[in-house]
Specification:
There is one protein chain. The chain is mostly helical. The chain has one domain. It is 70% helix and 0% strand. α1 packs across α5.
């Protein structure tokens, strides 16, 4: 049970970081919409410095979980608990 709670909190923190960085325009507008292979070299540099290729691929598998506004609000609520 404890490990599930830790995983859910980490997802919440990841969502919060993505939301904040997109709001500051620190991530490319195509974040989570393009596969890693489709990114420009500049976009790859940005993604690599933010989270790395492997983590980005996980986001791209489930963009509705990590990139949607509704889920980000839920993440903010989870992070504040």
């Amino acid at each position: 049970m404890l490990s599930l709670l830790v995983v859910e909190r980490l997802k919440g923190i990841t969502k919060l970081n993505i939301f904040a960085c997109k709001g500051k325009n620190w991530l490319p507008p195509s974040y989570g919409k393009k596969s890693y292979e489709e990114l420009t070299p500049q976009e790859k540099d940005c993604i690599d410095s933010f989270e790395g290729e492997e983590s980005y691929r996980e986001v791209c598998k489930r963009p509705e979980l990590f990139v949607s506004i509704d889920n980000t609000v839920k993440a903010l609520q989870l992070a504040s608990e």
